[in-house]
Amino acid sequence: MPESLLNEFVRLGGETGVFEDTETAHLAIDGNRVLSGREVEGLRVSAVQRDDGVDLDVELASGRALEKPVHMCFGVMKDEGVQRLRIRVKLGEGSSAEFIAHCMFPSARKVLHEMDAEVRLERGSRMIYNEAHFHGPHGGVEVKARAKVIAGPDARYRADFSLLSGLVGKLGLDYSVSAESRSVIELTARVFGHRQDEIIINESVVLAGEGARSIIKTRVALEGDARAEVRGMTEGRAPHSRGHVDCTEIVKDNAIAKAVPLVSVTNPLAKVTHEAAIGSVDKAQMETLCARGLSPQEAVDVIVKGLLG
Amino acid sequence: MSAGLSIRGLSYSAGGKKILSGLDLDVPPGTIHALIGTNGTGKSTLAYIIMGLEGYAPEAGSIALDDRRIEGLAIHERAELGITLAWQEPVRFEGISIRDYLSLRRSGGLEPERCLRLVGLEPEAYLGRNVDSSLSGGERKRVELASALSIRPALAILDEPDSGIDILSIDGVAAVIKAFRDSGAGVLVITHRQEIARKADIASHLCYGRIVNSGDPGEVTLQFREMKCQSCAGSEGECASA
Predict the structure, then answer these.
(1) Least CB-CB distance to A288: which of B54, B78, B87?
(2) Does A308 lie at the interface with B, CB-CB under 8 angstroms?
(3) Tell me: the pLDDT tens digits for A223-247?
(4) Residues 217-256 in A contacting B (C-alpha not used; CB under 8 Å)
(5) A248 CA to chain B: closest CA distance, Å?
(6) Nearest CA in chain A to B50
(7) What is the DSSP string of A221-280?
(8) Tens digit of pLDDT for each residue in A206-220?
(9) Do A293 and B91 touch (CB under 8 A)?
């Protein structure tokens, strides 16, 4: 793998060993250039470089359970550039895998990162997808991430998106999931916005199958003049389906936050709940931490750090 | 003024109503001072005033710790002097582990493991858990006491440390209060339980903003129970206005 991407990965705490380990699958893409990749038994990874982006095809064989996470290094190392990823992921019946996406834009001043993903989880398969963004200090990144997930019967899908390092720039996160019978969906997004950052998060789950369950959990902290709008939608269509939408946003300074939890039920045996809290840092929490000797600023830092995990 | 906490002539009003009126109170280092009284008589208000919470500035009187006046200090500045408060209904924190919560003091604090053992919680089972809604009310109260212990306070204000903890654990609560004292701290413990108050070195009965009786814990609690304070004749279940 080229040194710049690897160096950035190491600087952020990553272990180089994951790219050398023959039993660990990985994929590294800088801009629209595919730098390296490795498949492992049962996991097919195809990355086709095209003029306007990269087409990725990932397929895990039925019954195959990957012991080690698949590492995906995405990003743009230069201060300007475009990265367009079209991703198709399919997990075969009864398979399981964890994917860790490291999305790095350390110098970005004018960078566009677009991702369109389609994920299909066959019956009884399990997928964990952790996407951690590391942005630089200039705020020059625009992220447009869209994913459509179909979770088959008895499948489990857990996704955790985090953008806690550097300035966000512009973030548009748009995830939608269709959950079939007895499938379990967990969507978590954690973002810390500063200065002029603009954040729009749309996450939706349709509980289409009997007994499907989901939780959408969003945690956003804002300071400066940052703006955020969070929409969490869950629709209970099937009997005994259960969903919950949970959004907390902390605002400081001149930041503005909006939360729109939208829940609907079209089956009388379904149940969907929601909770949303927006406001400044909780006064009682502040006082408690100050009573242990933390300054108000230190107390805010501790509370925000805890909230964003 | 004397060493430890010294309050003289403290008055406080809220919404046009007098809450505390000319209150005097001392908590020397290494002593437990129990404050008893019926609901709404100003016990927690006094705790908040001493800690310096927003909206609880006294209108008259002085508060000193080790002869240093503290009325003008912010909460964290009072905490730096060694004052801390364990809340009656402690808040919960998402994403903050008990280990981190008990390690807020940068140096010189008690180890989290020891704090947990002192409040009757096994460190192995609790250090990795978060101070969030996964804890029961009683567990959260114990963690709050452990947190107050962790900073090795000079003055610990314990606001009803026994509420929410079952009667079988009262001896445990009393042991925790004693642990504060044994560490050299002055302890102001607000309580409704006579079993707790009787274990103090001194007890005071707060009645509608005034200390109406102060002295031997056994006698003060007895008079409180019979609602015969020095300046008023109480009716059943409630002490009449002093």
Answers:
(1) B87
(2) yes
(3) 999 999 999 999 999 999 999 999 9
(4) 248
(5) 11
(6) A291
(7) EE-TT-EEEEEEEEEE-STT-EEEEEEEEEE-TT-EEEEEEEEEESSTT-EEEEEEEEES
(8) 999 999 999 999 999
(9) no
Q: Thinking of the domain B5-91+149-233, which architecture would CATH place it in?
A: 3-Layer(aba) Sandwich (3.40)
Q: Could you state, in order of their start, the residue ranges of all structural domains in chain A?
A: 3-282
- The residue among B44, B54, B94 with the most chain A CBs within 10 A of its CB, best to mutate, is B94
| Alpha carbons B81 and B61: distance in angstroms, whole number | 20
Among left, alpha and beta (phi > 0; psi -120 to 50; other), residue A49 is: beta
Q: What's the whole-number mean pLDDT along residues A248-255?
A: 95
**Residue A8 has what pLDDT?**
84
Average pLDDT over residues A189-205: 97
Determine the average pLDDT of the residues in B10-32: 96
As a dihedral over the C-alpha atoms of residue A16, residue A17, residue A21, residue A24, rounded to 10 degrees, the angle is -70
pLDDT of residue B228: 56
A235 close to A207: Cβ distance less than 8 angstroms: yes
Alpha-carbon distance of A35 to A33, in angstroms, equals: 6
Confidence check on the interface: ipTM exceeds 0.95, yes or no: no
Residue contact B94–A291, C-beta within 8 A = no
CA-wise closest residue to B14 among B42, B39, B35: B42
pLDDT, tens digit (0-9, with 9 covering 90-100), for B161-190? 988 777 668 888 999 999 999 999 999 999
- Chain A residues inside the 8 Å CB shell of B147: 292
Residue A292 and residue B79: Cβ atoms within 8 Å? yes
- Domain layout of chain B by residue ranges: 5-91+149-233
Q: In terms of C-beta distances under 8 Å and separation of at least 24 residues, what long-range contacts does B113-116 make, across chains too?
A: B115/B146, B115/B147, B115/B149, B115/B150, B116/B143, B116/B146
Kindly report the pTM of this predicted structure: 0.86
Min distance B234 CA to chain A CA atoms (Å): 34
Which pLDDT tens digit goes with each residue over B94-143? 999 999 999 997 678 899 999 999 999 999 999 999 999 999 999 999 99
> Does the beta carbon of B102 lie under 8 angstroms from any beta carbon of chain A?
no
B95 interfacial to chain A (CB closer than 8 Å): yes
Of B78, B96, B106, the CB nearest to A306: B96
Q: Would the CA dihedral through B74, B78, B79, B84 be positive or negative?
A: negative
**Hey, is the C-beta of B93 within 8 angstroms of any chain A C-beta?**
yes
CB contact under 8 A, A288 and B150: no
Q: Which of A282, A291, A305 sits opposite B84 (nearest CB)?
A: A291
